[in-house]
Specification:
Largest sheet: 38 strands, antiparallel
Distance between the termini: 168 Å
Helix content: under 10%
Strand content: over 45%
Radius of gyration: 45 Å
Number of helices: 2
Length: 578
């Protein structure tokens, strides 16, 4: 039986060779077939089998056609279909109905119709085309394929399915050798965890990576507000790592991170950004800028270095922060687990500028939700013409009204106020002690309460009833267990001095300049932040203000005393040595 079948094939092939298959009309090919093969003579398409051979003037333009279990072969590929029209002289076939092309590399193309040119080894499949390659399928209406370059192309819109990913695109080119697909035009990759949408995506199926060219968005399905945008980047679909190179941004937890060169891992939630980095937090009305940043999505925290700074945008008066390193993070509210509190920390050379208060310290920690700020490491605060220092300073802000409420100074607390800001006399009110609380009223220092070894040097003034001018009476030296000092526009008044109180008031003529200053007095005008831009330097290094020594009365009184002593000495009888 087998020998009979082989003999039948031989007779059929011999019979077919004798038949004139020249078409009655010229063959009109798709322009895709115009590039003819160069070099050696192309191998001919061969008939393997068909049940029927026919030729009719009223069908297929009079060209011969085969039907019934039709099989054609070329270069290791097998073509089957319901009907095949064969243009022998052109080495060209048209297949109609249940078309299937089995290629030597294992790929299979099925369609409703197909044309194949044996000279160029190019083909066009039409009507519900399905290309099956190990591990994936491509579906479209019209597919162009080239067996020499082993590439397939479509521009009629199509779907590619692989490893749970469904890819939609207007057009695509698939290189079966390198397994690289170039998607263009409204590309969409649908994954159970995320969606990728872009204008041009090149996917390497060997490494399972995608390269983005043009505007592309990766959206988290569980939380659509968490997304990544870039105009140039690479995505590893296995490790869920994305590398972003142009006009990129990462949206996470209501925040927005941008930078020149970025990275993000969707599994761990860790990301980095380099060059012109900005992290915006609209909920906190805050943004951070710097040269390098790290974000931790799952911990809801971020860190920024390389000349970083942060701006807390307030309706009336913003706050500006800087340091060598700035951290921003959120924690669950212990009192209400359904809410979070936001924190900002600045390490090494911390600075904060606000129009009504300026701060410097080695480190700063700010509870933005409650409005509590901690400063450590030689902290110093300025408000108006007042300066406050101590071992540690805590600042309390009214977050609703955007006011500063109070300062708490712990250890070596020292408050200095210019006695009269309208002149350059070296007259300063000073209050110091172990613990000090400074209260503000309308963003200005109003009251200071000192506990433990409280001391004060204050200037006393009075109004002349005749001239109506304020005249300096003298200086008060106060030593108490506790002191309450009230700060007014141009003076400080001790309103309470308790526990071992001792207050002495001296006229200006009887107190020396040295007695008017505590030994650790340090009025700092060089380092004070006078504009928000001063946060960017270690020290503004302003020229020290030169104050005039106000000791004319004291020197005159001392001169008079010295002259009187000289006169008394002159009256005494001189000793004569015998």
């Amino acid at each position: 039986m087998k020998k009979l079948f082989v003999f039948f094939l031989f007779i059929s092939a011999h019979f077919f060779a004798q038949i004139n298959t020249q078409p009655q009309q010229d063959l009109v090919k798709d322009p895709y077939f115009n590039n003819a093969q160069t070099g050696a003579t192309a191998e001919k398409v061969k008939l393997i089998h068909s049940d029927f051979f026919q030729k009719a003037l009223d069908k297929y333009n009079g060209n011969p056609y085969f039907s019934g279990n039709v099989q054609f072969a070329h270069q290791g590929s097998i073509l089957t279909a319901d009907v095949v029209i064969f243009y022998q002289e052109q080495n060209f076939v048209k297949a109609i109905g249940n078309v299937r092309l089995q290629n030597a590399d294992g790929s299979v193309i099925t369609s409703g119709e197909m044309e194949y040119d044996g000279n160029t080894q190019k083909g066009i499949a039409r009507k519900k085309v399905l290309l099956t390659d190990p591990g994936q399928t491509i579906q479209t209406e019209t597919l162009y394929y080239d067996r020499l370059s082993n590439k397939a192309y479509f521009n009629t819109g199509g779907t590619i399915t692989k490893d749970g990913n469904v890819m939609y695109t207007k057009s695509a080119t698939y290189d079966l050798n390198s397994r690289i697909i170039d998607f263009t035009g409204n590309v969409k990759i649908d994954n159970p965890e995320y969606t990728v949408e872009g204008v041009n995506i090149v996917q390497n199926q060997n490494t399972n990576t995608a390269t983005f060219n043009g505007a592309t968005t990766i959206t988290n399905k569980k939380n659509p507000s968490n997304l990544i945008y870039t105009e140039k980047g690479t995505y590893n679909m296995n490790s869920k790592e994305v590398y972003l190179k142009k006009n990129s941004r990462i949206h996470y937890n209501g925040k927005l991170l941008t930078g020149d060169d970025m990275y993000f891992n969707q599994i761990t939630g860790f990301g980095t950004a380099k060059g012109n980095v900005t992290l915006r937090d609209p909920r906190e009305n805050r943004y951070m800028k710097g040269g390098y940043a790290e974000i931790y999505e799952k911990k809801d925290s971020a860190m920024m270095t390389e000349k970083p700074y942060a701006v807390k945008i307030l309706e009336k008066d913003s706050m500006y922060f800087s340091a060598d390193r700035i951290l921003a993070y959120q924690k669950i509210d212990e009192q209400n687990p359904l809410k979070k509190k936001s924190f900002l920390r600045a390490y090494r050379k911390a600075r904060m500028f606000k129009s009504n208060i300026q701060l410097r310290a080695d480190s700063l920690s700010f509870n933005e939700t409650d409005g509590i700020m901690h400063l450590n490491g030689n902290p110093i605060a300025w408000s108006g013409e007042k300066q406050i220092t101590g071992n540690k300073i805590e600042a309390y802000f009214d977050t609703e009204n955007e006011f500063i409420d109070s300062l708490r100074v712990i250890g070596d607390a020292f408050a200095i106020s210019k006695a009269d800001s309208l002149n350059l006399k070296d007259e300063f009110n000073q209050v110091k002690g172990k613990l000090m609380t400074v209260y503000y009223e309308k963003n200005d220092v109003k009251l200071a309460k000192v506990i433990g070894n409280a001391q004060a040097i204050t200037y006393a003034d009075d109004r002349n009833e005749k001239t109506k001018e304020v005249e300096r009476i003298g200086v008060s030296l106060s030593t108490c267990g506790t002191i309450e000092a009230e700060f007014e526009d141009r003076k400080v008044q001790i309103i309470s001095c308790n526990i071992g109180a001792n207050v002495d008031t001296y006229p200006m003529s009887l107190i020396s300049r040295e007695q008017r200053f505590f030994p650790d007095f340090n009025w700092n005008t060089k380092d004070r932040l006078r504009t928000w831009r001063d946060i960017f330097v270690d020290s503004p290094n302003y020229e020290e203000i030169q104050y005039e020594a106000n000791d004319v009365l004291y020197k005159a009184a001392q001169k008079a005393i010295d002259e009187e002593k000289a006169k008394e000495e002159a009256k005494k009888p001189k000793r004569v040595r015998k």
